[in-house]
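Lecture notes, continued. The same structure-token format from the folding unit now serves as the input rather than the output. Read the line below as a description of shape only.
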């Protein structure tokens, strides 16, 4: 017998981006690239880089606390914590377990979700299932990445693209009208190895040889990824809208994964959808993978681009050929974000391992962190 499902709505949102900026001008000093190429081919002007004491879990916890405060809840009101990430602090425990401890939640189930740049949208889908079926009342869904720790800063094909940060929403079960309208997830195996990190896991465990061959850094076949991204973002978005009995004409704002401004422009042209109704903040953050959609969502609300009653489309594409889209009607008061004012890194502490500390900060970026005028100035660059 069919059971009636609960509605699910966004009640809290929040984001965190580290202070340190990696500009195109700085990249010009590190690899054979230039501001004009990066701007015209990607739309990126700068990205944020996590400080040595920051990790995926610490940034996720700040974004999570902000989302919980925005929702008017306490950390222990959360029943489920999902962190979409490809850069967890450790292979285990999960970043979500560290976040749970850091925010002082006692009873939530917490786990990571591996769907690369689509990780937040996949996490939304999973949490939606829990909430709609009555298994949980409030879920914290986070997308968080420290991409700078898996980027090869001598590879101009990837190092200009990625940045660090975290974004989060609280999803709550509710029988009021509005909220989530339709969701679609897909995984296209044509892109299985289009973006990948060859070593450091079960198929190619870390050895001196894998490290020497830079196999712990992300690799990407940009051109084929670009074409597939345009196709899959479009088809997945349309399917989520069909499930919501909507068309693109009904959408007030698309909040897409920020991989490349040209991907979004191509999509807008193919779908005949105006760029004015596509939220773009890639110039400030680059591609923050799973964090990009929830960071963009938080900024869109803060900038007054989303009001109660608006119909919003979240859509993402990422490694492994994952793609996902969520159509929803916004119900929250945008001013609720003010409840999170004052929450920051000082409010979270990740449980210490007791191991001798190492600096996880990319050596190639050390000169920027210390305020030197160029990589040469610090002596021998990596
Ligand atoms: O988040 C998950 C999804 N990720 C994506 O969707 C990323 C998709 N891919 C892309 O965004 C684009 O393919 C890139 C931005 C990665 C590359 O842009 P492109 O327009 O596809 O450039 P390309 O790879 O076709 O390279 C064109 C030229 C090449 O030189 P030649 O062979 O024409 O002489 C590259 O070597 O641009 C060169 N190039 C660069 N030049 C200056 C590649 N990277 C750079 C660079 N600066 N950083």
């Amino acid at each position: 017998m069919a059971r009636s499902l609960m509605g699910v709505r966004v009640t809290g949102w929040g984001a965190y981006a580290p202070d340190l900026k990696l500009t195109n001008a700085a990249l010009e000093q590190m690899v054979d690239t230039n501001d004009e190429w990066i701007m015209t081919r990607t739309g990126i002007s700068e990205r944020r880089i996590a400080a040595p004491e920051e990790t995926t879990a610490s940034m996720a916890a700040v974004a999570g606390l902000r989302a919980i405060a925005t929702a008017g809840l306490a950390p222990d009101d959360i029943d489920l914590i999902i962190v979409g990430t490809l850069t967890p602090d450790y292979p285990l425990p999960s970043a979500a377990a560290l976040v749970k401890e850091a925010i002082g939640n006692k009873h939530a189930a917490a786990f990571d979700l591996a769907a690369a740049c689509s990780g937040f949208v996949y996490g939304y889908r999973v949490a939606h299932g829990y909430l709609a079926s009555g298994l949980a009342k409030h879920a914290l869904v986070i997308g968080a990445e420290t991409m700078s720790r898996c980027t090869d800063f001598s590879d101009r094909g990837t190092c200009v693209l990625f940045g660090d940060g975290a974004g989060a929403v609280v999803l709550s079960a509710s029988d009021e009208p509005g909220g989530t309208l339709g969701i679609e997830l897909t995984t296209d195996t044509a892109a299985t190895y289009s973006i990948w990190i060859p070593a450091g896991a079960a198929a190619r465990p870390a050895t001196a040889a894998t490290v020497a061959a830079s196999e712990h850094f992300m690799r990407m076949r940009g051109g084929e990824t670009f074409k597939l991204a345009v196709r899959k973002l479009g088809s997945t978005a349309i399917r989520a809208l069909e499930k919501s009995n909507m068309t693109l004409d009904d959408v007030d704002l698309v909040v897409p994964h920020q991989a490349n401004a040209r991907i979004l422009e191509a999509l807008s042209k193919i779908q005949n959808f105006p760029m004015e109704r596509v939220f773009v903040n890639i110039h400030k953050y680059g591609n923050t993978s799973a964090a990009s959609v929830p960071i963009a969502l938080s900024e869109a609300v803060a900038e007054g681009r989303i009001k109660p009653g608006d119909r919003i489309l979240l859509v993402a594409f990422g490694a492994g050929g994952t793609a996902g889209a969520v159509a929803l009607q916004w119900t929250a008061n945008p001013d609720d974000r003010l409840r999170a004012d004052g929450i920051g890194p000082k409010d979270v502490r990740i449980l210490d391992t007791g191991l001798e500390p190492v600096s996880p900060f990319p050596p190639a970026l050390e000169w920027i962190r210390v305020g030197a005028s160029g990589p040469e100035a610090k002596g021998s660059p990596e």
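Point for the exam: The radius of gyration is 20 Å.
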